[in-house]
Amino acid sequence: MDNLDLLLLSGWLAKIVFAIFSLGAIGGAAYLLFTKNILYGAYGFLVSLISVAGLFILLGAEFIGVSQIMIYVGGVLVLIMFGIMLSANGKNALEVSNVNLLLSLLIALCVSSGLIYMVSQMNIAYDEQSYEGVNQVNELGMHLMTTHVSLLEIIGVLLLVVLIGASFIAKKRFEDA
Fold this sequence. Notes:
- The protein has helices spanning 3-8, 12-34, 38-58, 62-87, 101-120, 136-145, 149-176.
- The chain is an all-alpha fold.
- The chain has one domain (3-176): Four Helix Bundle (Hemerythrin (Met), subunit A) (Up-down Bundle), CATH 1.20.120.1200.
- Helix 2 runs antiparallel to helix 3 (38-58) and helix 4 packs parallel to helix 7 (149-176).
- The longest helix has 28 residues, at 149-176.
- It is globular.
- The termini are far apart.
C-alpha cells in the first residue's frame, strides 16, 4: 500500500471525503429536481455524476469511477447539453415547471426508501487478502465480454439513443429557424 491508501484507510479522512462526495451527489440531484432552468439542472446533474464517480474511486472501484466520468459525463451529459443549447430559442425556452411535483416526490420517496432498505439488509464482508493480486480491470473485462455482455450492449444502446435524440433536437431547431 502506498501513502495515499494508508491515509484514506486511516478513518477520519475517509469519512470526510465520503461525506463531501455524498453531499455532492445528493445536492446535485436535489438541485436537478428543484431547479426551473434546464441548463442549471444539467449542471446539477454534472455535480451529481462526478460525485458518484468520486464515491466509486473512494471505494476502490477505480475503473468504474473513471468509466462513469468518461461515459456519462463525457458522453451523455455533453450530448444533453448540446441538445439544450441548440434547442433553446430565447430566454424562456430553458424554463420548465413540474406539473406533478407531489406525485414525483412520492415516487422518489418510495424508490429511495426501498433502496435504503435493500442496502441496509446487505451483508458485505471485505477481506483484503482475497483481493490481493487480482487484476480488477482484466476480471471486469472478461465478465463484460462473456457472462455479462448484455450490460455492455445496453450501455451502447443508451449512448446511441442519446446521440439520436440530441441530433433530432438539433435538426428540429435548425428546421424551425
